[in-house]
Amino acid sequence: MFDLVVRGDVVTTQGVRRGHYLSVLNGEVVGVTASDPGSSRERVDAEGAYVFPGAVDAQVHSRSQKGSEGLAACTRAAAAGGVTTIVEMPYDEGLLVCSADAVRSKADDAERQSHVDVAIYGTIHPDEGTARIQEQIEAGVCGFKFSTFGTDPVRFPRIPPWLMRDAFAAIAPSGLAAGVHNENHETVMHDLEMVKKAGLTDHTAHGKSHTDFAEALAMAEIYEIGAYTGCRAHVVHCSIGRGIEICEGYRRQGFDASVEVCIHYFVFSEDEDGARLGGKAKINPPIRPSSEREALWRHLAAGNIDLVSTDHVAWSLDRKNDPDMLKNASGGPSIEVMVPLLIKGCLERGVDLSMAARVLSGNPARHFRLQPRKGAFWAGAEADFSIIDPAEAPWTVAASQTVSDWSLYDGMSLPQVRATYVRGHKVWDGKDVVSAEGFGGFVKPFGRA
Question: Strands 425-428 and 416-422, how do they pair?
Fold first, then answer.
């Protein structure tokens, strides 16, 4: 007697199993079979819909603006979008997660507030150097985040190459990855000054100050530090085809290099959308010309991209609607649209949905050492999944499931997320979040107490 059996088109990292059955017992996957596995307490007929492995959003900022969102609201939106685990960035307003105490404080909040599961990135304070890296590893961080570009000396600091080298070396023995924001600080600051002197304030000002050159230069630096130290080097939001090629070059040399692309780079381009979206589309690195968007799709189809994430942050609209592009905050809310957006894009472009399962579920779970618990439908994995129906009346995005009253994706028609399950329990029923705060919790890399 199973607890739950779901029949539908089961999407795995190897392929789509049409008309298969997913069986669940005690919150874990028992198997995926072509024939009916037998009796169960609950059955779901999702014929014609996709049964998609729970997405692991590798890049989420739920607490970047105090009083704006937080873990409870963010994980509600995650549940609505088929995201069953979020990976929280360490740059909370008022709390840089750079010590064991900070990790434990945030983990406690996740245990009390979250509707889905939460993994946590750590970082370092520039004044402390590498002193607190080991204690954060012991507290259960799933990786470390740094930046080659600084927007604030404490909350989001630039980490210079020599300190990045020392941090990578300290992380390497743990096997965790070092993820890095990829823009060369000195180049950006110089180009930004030139843009200001030229009096540019329209949508083009951002791309001209945060150039593809600055991004490629930073990526080469990040991977070279990884090669020098033996640390797993990861770029967290590549927006250019050249960046994927740089990563591939280091992989061919035998180094553990990986690359992540955010969902907005697959959807928007500066030449087609920049003027229309204005400050709403200000993101670091920027959205690029449509030729770069198409290059990223080619790399995705070829299997050259490891992770797809959101870089979600629920800024209030007053921080995104200044007519002077440079005065707007960078980033925006997107956690509830990532999975349906990528599925829609893959279907339209003929990219096998197994690739979407890899970059949204299997690869991020492996990257953050959350396997074998997360990211797949093998026996014994936690039964995290969503049911997504491309044939049902499409969901038209209107604002956001988050606390934001705006969205880059307003008016887009996307496949419906009919349900989301975490550990075999429904957390989203297609209209409402039905799990309580605290149903989700803090997850550590596998093998750590």
Answer: antiparallel
Q: Encode pLDDT of 367-395 as tens digits.
A: 999 999 999 999 999 999 999 998 876 77
Tokens 């979008």, residue located: 81
Find residue 155's DSSP bridge partners.
none
User: How many angstroms separate the Cα of 320 from the Cα of each of 204, 232, 287, 324, 406?
Assistant: 15, 34, 15, 10, 10
Looking at the DSSP assignment, which residues form a beta bridge with residue 45? 7
Strand partners, 440: none
Q: Do 344 and 1 touch, CB atoms closer than 8 A? A: no
Identify the bridge partners of residue 332 per DSSP, sorted by sequence position. Answer: 312
CA dist., res. 199 & res. 281, Å (int): 20
- Say if residue 447 is exposed, middle or buried (CB neighbours under 10 Å; 0-12, 13-18, 19+): exposed
How far is it, in rounded angstroms, from Cα 40 to Cα 26? 12
CA-to-CA distance for 339 and 310, rounded, in angstroms?
10
Query: Angle 384-258-299 (CA atoms, 0-180°, nearest 5)?
Result: 90
pTM: 0.96
CB 80 within 8 A of CB 417: yes
**Tens digit of each residue's pLDDT (9 = 90 or more) over 276-311:** 999 999 999 999 999 999 999 999 999 999 999 999
Amino acid at 364: P
Cβ partners under 8 Å of residue 103, min gap 6: 97, 120, 122, 136, 139, 140, 141
Token readout for 350 is 């003929």
